[in-house]
Amino acid sequence: MSYQHVSMDETNVIFRMKIQDYGQAEVARCLGRHAGTISRELRRNANCDGRYWPGVAQAKANVRRGAHIRRPKTGSVMLMGFVTERLERRWSPQQIAGRLREVGWAKLPGAGISHTTIYRWIWSDPQRAARFRPHLRVAGERGGGKGTGDRLLFVGVLPRAAQR
């Protein structure tokens, strides 16, 4: 089941029904939503005196949504400097990610990065790949994705035994 954010039209209905003293369960039935959704909407988006206003609710929701925009970890100069130093010391991406996960790093508390992200960062730039390839434990060709083993690929129909 997918989650749908409460729309501006729904916030207006919640506001009007709340003013007319409808209960949360009645508002939920009217909108075809779960009562918990209405309760959460009223709790999260009320203004400082506890009243619910659609404009305030939308503004608060937009602030929360903006706070959760995913920013790439590879954009952090300090974090990638840490990764670069370790790669040059011949640490594997797995060791770097594991060390950050276990003990952290004093300059960036709570910072973490996965070994997959480190590999993607290395291979995303040809100059970076050329620079770090000698430092990787397996300096061979870049590996494929999941399920890319050595498999035979048959195209078309194989000739029958009698035709061989």
Task: Characterise this structure.
- The protein is mostly helical and 164 residues long.
- It has 2 domains: 8-67; 73-135.
- The chain contains 8 helices and no strands.
- The protein has helices spanning 8-19, 24-31, 35-45, 54-67, 77-88, 93-103, 115-123, 126-132.
- Helix 3 packs across helix 4 and helix 6 (93-103) packs across helix 7.
- It is elongated and about 70 Å long.
- The mean pLDDT is 80.
Quick overview:
The chain has helices at 8-19, 24-31, 35-45, 54-67, 77-88, 93-103, 115-123, 126-132. With 164 residues, the protein is mainly alpha-helical. It has 2 domains: 8-67; 73-135.
Number of strands: 0
Topology order in helix (H) and strand (E) letters: HHHHHHHH
In terms of DSSP E residues, the strand content is under 5%
Mean pLDDT across residues: 80
* Sequence stretches where pLDDT stays below 50 over 5 or more residues: none
- 3D shape: elongated
- Domains, number: 2
Helix content: 40-55%
Structural class: mainly alpha
Number of helices: 8
Q: Cα distance, first to last residue?
A: 55 Å
Biggest sheet architecture: none
* Cα gyration radius (Å): 27 Å
